[in-house]
Amino acid sequence: MALPHGGVSTDTKTVTYASYLDLDRLLAAQHPSSDRHDELLFILIHQTKELWLKEIIHEVRLAKRLVRSGEVEPAYKALARVSRIQSIMTLSWDVLATMTPADYMSFREGLGTSSGFQSWQFRTLEYLLGLKDASFLAFQDEGSAPMAELKGALEAPSLYDDALSRMAAHGLAVPDEVLNRDVSQPYAPSPAVEDAWLAVYRDTARYWELYQLAEKLVDLDDALLTWRHKHVLTVERIIGGKPGTGGTAGAAGGGYLQRTLQRRCFPELWSLRTRL
Ligand code: HEM
User: Fold this and answer.
1) Which of 107, 115, 124, 136 has most ligand 1 atoms within 8 Å of CB, for mutation?
2) What is the set of domains in the chain, with CATH numbers?
3) Which ligand 1 atom is the nearest neighbour of the CA of 108?
C-alpha cells in the first residue's frame, strides 16, 4: 500500500482489491440529479475524463521536468503515453453519442449552469501545454486547491517553453525576449522561433533529439484538436444549435466552441511545415 511519503507499507496482508483502489468511494461518487437511465453514462464519461486528465497532467509534468533537465529521450515515453490516453478520450465520444437528444433533454435541467468549461484539470492541462488564458481562473474559488494548482500552472513555463529552452541549449537562435517573456501571458508566435524549428526540420540528423520532441508535441496538439472537433460534433448531434449550460452559444458556427478549434499549443510547429 502506498504511503503519503512515497514508501510502501509492509502491512500488505490487509490490502484487498477494493481497499487498494478505494472502490467504496469511487463507486459511491455518482449522484444523478434524476431517475433517467442515461444520466449515469453522462456522469461516468465526465468522471473518466477527469481521471484520465489526472494521469495526463502527471505525465506532462514528468515530461516537463525531463525536458528542462536535458533528459529528452525519457520524456518521449511519457508523451507517447499521453497520446495513447488522448486516443481513448476521443473514442469515448462514440459511447456518449449513443445518448440521443431526447435522452439528454430529459435530465439536462438538473445540470444547472455546470459545464466542462469549468474543468480545472482541463485548464491546467491547457496551461501546462502553453495555452495561457487567465480568464479561466474566475471559475475556481479563491484559496481552493484547484485555484492554487491552476495558478501554479499559469505562472510556470509551459512544456513549449521548456522545449524552446532546450532549443537554445542546442545553440539555436531563440530570442531572449521569447525565453524571458512573462510566461503567464498568451504565447505570441515568433518568426525567429519558426526559423529555429525550420533549422531542426531541415537537418534532422543533427537535431534528432529536438526533431523527435517536436513530432511528439505535434502528436499532442493534433490529438487535443481531434478531441475538440469530436466534442463540437457530439454537442451538435445532441443539442443542435442550442446554447450550452455554461452560457456560450454552444456548437453554433462562429461561436465559442468553434473558435477553440483554432487553438494551437505549439504554433510554429504547424506554421513551419508550409516553408519546408
Ligand atoms: C451532452 C453532451 C455535451 C454537451 C451538450 C456539451 C456542451 C458543451 C458546451 C456548449 C460547451 C461550451 C461551454 C458552455 O456553454 O457550456 C462545452 C465545453 C466543454 N465541454 Fe462539453 N458538452 C458535452 C459533453 C462533454 C463531455 C462528455 C466532456 C468531457 C468528457 C465535455 C468537456 C468539455 C470541456 C473540457 C469544455 C471546455 C472546452 C473549451 O473551453 O475549450 N463535454 N461543452
Assistant:
1) 115
2) 37-275 (1.20.58.480)
3) 1
Ordered DSSP codes for the chain = -B-TTS-B-S-GGG--HHHHTTHHHHHT----SSS-TTHHHHHHHHHHHHHHHHHHHHHHHHHHHHHHTT-HHHHHHHHHHHHHHHHHHHHHHHHHTTS-HHHHHTTGGGGTT--GGG-HHHHHHHHHHT---GGGGGGS-TTSHHHHHHHHHHHS--HHHHHHHHHHHTT----HHHHTS-TTSPPPP-HHHHHHHHHHHHSTTTTHHHHHHHHHHHHHHHHHHHHHHHHHHHHHHHHTTPPPTTSS-TT-TTSHHHHHTT--SSHHHHHHHHH-
For a substitution probing ligand 1, which of 233, 235, 263 has the most ligand atoms within 8 Å of its CB?
A: 235
Can you give the pLDDT at residue 12? 77
Per-residue pLDDT averaged across 205-219, rounded?
Answer: 98
Mean pLDDT of 196-205: 98
Residues in contact with ligand 1 by the CB-under-6-Å rule are: 45-46, 49, 96, 104, 115-117, 119, 122, 231, 235, 238-239, 244-248, 250, 256-257, 260
The residue whose CA is least distant from atom 21 of ligand 1 is 116
pLDDT in tens, 31-46: 999 999 999 999 999 9
Sorting pLDDT into bands at 50, 70 and 90, what band is 254?
Answer: confident
